[in-house]
Each structure stands twice: as C-alpha cells, then as structure tokens.
From TrEMBL:
Residues 27-117 form the Potassium channel tetramerisation-type BTB domain. GO terms for cellular component: voltage-gated potassium channel complex. Its main location: membrane. It comes from Rotaria sordida. This is BTB domain-containing protein. The keyword Transport applies. GO terms for biological process: action potential; protein homooligomerization. It is found in: Membrane. It comes from the Eukaryota.
Length: 412
C-alpha cells in the first residue's frame, strides 16, 4: 500500500462517524409503491410542511417496513422532493393537470403564498364564489337573471332561450333603421318623392318590437338592481352599463319619432348616426347568456398585456418600414406613396397581410422591404394569437371545474 492509499484510508477512518450519522439521518418514503430515500435534515428546511414536521408525518409511518407510506401521485412527489433539495424551487410537471398539482401541494402543506403565486402565473382564474341576497324573493330573481344555468332544468334553458330570443328580436328594428338611413338615404327620398324624411324610420311592426324590447330591458335592469346583494356587483358589471346605454339611446330615438319636429335632416343626421352606434350594443347582451362568448371576452381581458405588446410592436414596425418604404420608393416617378402617411398605411396593411392594393411599392428595393415587413408581421401576430388561443382553450377546459366548485354565499 503506497503512501497515497494510506492517506486516503486514514481520511476514511476520520470520516466514518460522519458517514454513520448521515446513514442514521436517512429516511425512506414510499409513494404508491415507489421508494424515495432522503436526508431528514433536508426536509427540516421547511418545518411547517408535512414532511418537514416529524409530528405531522408520524401518522404515516409503517413500523413493520420502517418507511413512511403515502398513497399519493409519484410524479408530483418528484417535484415536491425537488422543492426540498433545491429550497424554494417548485416546478409543475408538464403532463400533470394544474388542478391535480395544486391539490397535491396543499396535501403536503407547501407554503400557501407560493401556491397562490404559482396559480396566478399558471392557471386561469375562475369565479367560484357567487353572492346571493338575504331575502328569498330577491335571491330567486338574482339567480334567474344573473345565473340562469343554476336553476333546475328545463327552466334554465327556458330562461336563457327567452333572453337570447328577446335580444335577437330587438336587433330587427335596428337593422330596419340603419339600412335606409345610412346607405339609401337619397334614393329613398326619390322613391317616396318627398323633400324631408322624419327620423327615425319605423315600420309599425318594428315600432312595436322596439317598444317591447325597451320595456323588457328596463324591467330586467331594474329587477337586477333591486335584487342585487351588493350594489358594487351592478357597478362592476359592464353589461349593466351596456343595458343602460341601449335603453337611453333607444328611448331618445322613440321620443324623436313621436315629436316629428326635425326640420332639417342634416342637422339631426350626424347625431342620429351616433345613436345608431349606441343602439348596436344590444347584440353584446348575448355575452350574458352564451358561455363561450363570455369566455372569449374574459380571455381578451386576461391577455391585455399581450395585446398591448402586439399594438406597440405593430406601431414600431409601421413607423420603421413605412419610413423606409417611403424613402426608397419616393424616388420613383410612378410611385403612389405621395407622403409619409401613405408609407405608414402601406406598412400597416402589409404587416396585417391585408393588402388592399390602393398603395403598393414600385421599386425593387421597396418590394424587398415590403416583403420583409410582411414576414415580420406574420411573426408578430402569430405569437400573441397563439397565447390567446391557449388561454381560451384552458378556459373551455376549466368550465367543468368552475361548475363543480361554485359556491353560493348569502351576503349580509
């Protein structure tokens, strides 16, 4: 035995007590038949957790096999173990559903603040708690108007069907108004052989539908306000404001129809067009009764950061390529980019891959720049679109979980 081997052997003898202590510190954990061996001191880094607290985990100890037995998900436990070995680092396995993963974290008593932070980044938030008023009659009205899917079948389908039908029928007079006033005003005057047309234009049947629609919308909004458990639920619901705008704009149109004192069409026409825009909001009432439409609006609200990043990227590329194309193409005698604004417009329709054809590059260099602009536009729009699609898909998939975990609380 040479001197180096003797030296190594002596060091092993010195380390023997340490190795013995480390062997004694080991514990064996069995997760659904799969064994894991870990040092107890590593678990004690987080004493508030199930594994880090000896008193908590003692009830799972098997005296015969001298192991801790847990009938839990083995793949998720690997992430839990990684959390102990690399303190504070928590990674969800990609093949594990978020709901299952977070249920496991709560079983192992992982820090709740860490779980909440993880949920905000990884999961789509769900409205699981719904408040109800104290009085029974208000509770029935509130659930019928706000959560019709919660009442018993077939009444839920009946309520939703009536609301959707009312909204669709209320759109018929709007279509009857907007077609002649916007597109065929002069032709209509010639056909009727009149110098003056009173606004708004209502066929008798449309007039009756409009009156009924405004009446139903007003009653529904008032019932919603009366039965609300908390007035803040009315204020923070944007659809209530849409209902108010619809009622006011439609009422003004009906009042003007009865007055018939509009002597000059042009004076009233510009204001009347704005009323038509406000009246068009009534189609958005469908979002209250159509789940997938509500989820789409919610997805857009969740993805506001991505949408803002998309808008900023489009503006930046539009300024860059618009200026570049204008400078390159302006030297051509047949160029139709007359000013820098035309260059911006060309860059914008190229980025969005619309290509109206009203403005297009003439020179070879400008066409190369436009082609590069189109490629960058495809990349810019594909990334946030994919993110929005994924989050919308997650919302659709989590629909069953939302229905399962909904809780109704009576607000005092």
């Amino acid at each position: 035995m040479n001197s180096r081997e003797i030296s190594n052997f002596q060091q092993l003898i010195k380390l023997h007590p340490l190795l013995k202590d480390e062997q004694r510190d080991r514990i064996t954990i069995m997760i659904s038949g799969k064994k894991f061996i870990v040092q107890n001191r590593q678990l004690k880094v987080f004493p508030e957790t199930l594994l880090g607290n000896e008193d908590k985990r003692r009830i799972f100890y098997d005296n015969k096999l001298h192991v801790y037995r847990f009938n839990r998900h083995p793949s998720i436990f690997e992430s839990i173990l990684y959390y102990y070995l690399n303190p504070g680092i928590l990674i969800r396995p990609p093949h594990i559903e978020p709901e299952i993963f977070y249920d496991e974290l709560r079983f192992w008593n992982i820090d709740e603040s860490l779980i909440e932070t993880f949920i905000e980044e990884d999961m789509i938030p769900l409205d699981n708690i719904r408040f109800l008023p104290v009085q029974k009659w208000r509770r029935i009205i509130w659930k019928t108007l706000m959560y019709p899917e919660s009442i018993h079948f077939p009444y839920s389908e009946l309520v939703i069907g009536i609301c959707i039908l009312t909204t669709l029928l209320s759109s018929i007079p709007f279509i009857g108004e907007i077609i002649p006033t916007v597109t065929e005003l002069n032709k209509l005057q010639n056909i009727l052989n009149v110098e003056q047309i009173f606004f708004p234009l209502y066929i008798r049947s449309f007039y009756i539908i409009e009156i009924l629609s405004i009446t139903i919308f007003s009653i529904e909004l008032n019932l919603r306000i009366i039965s609300a458990p908390n007035f803040s639920l009315i204020i923070y619901d944007i659809i209530n404001f849409l209902d108010l705008i619809i009622i006011l704009s439609s009422s003004i149109c009906l009042i003007s129809y009865h007055l018939h004192n509009i002597r000059y069409i042009n004076n009233f026409l510009s204001f009347y067009y704005w009323l038509l825009i406000l009246k068009s909001f009534r189609i958005y009432r469908l979002a209250r009764y159509m789940l997938h439409l509500r989820l789409l609006y919610k997805t857009i609200a969740i993805c506001l950061n991505e949408i803002c990043a998309l808008i900023i990227s489009v503006i930046f590329c539009m300024l860059l390529f618009g200026t570049l194309i204008y400078i390159i193409d302006n030297s051509e005698p047949e160029s139709n980019t007359r000013n820098i604004l035309d260059g911006f417009w060309l860059a914008f329709i190229t980025l969005t891959t619309l290509g109206y054809g009203d403005i297009y590059p003439r020179s070879f260099e400008a066409r190369i720049a436009a082609g590069l602009c189109a490629l960058i536009g495809i990349i810019i729009f594909s990334m946030p679109t994919t993110i929005i699609f994924i989050k919308y898909t997650k919302l659709i998939q989590n629909k069953w979980k939302q229905n399962r975990n909904i809780r109704y609380l009576i607000s005092s």
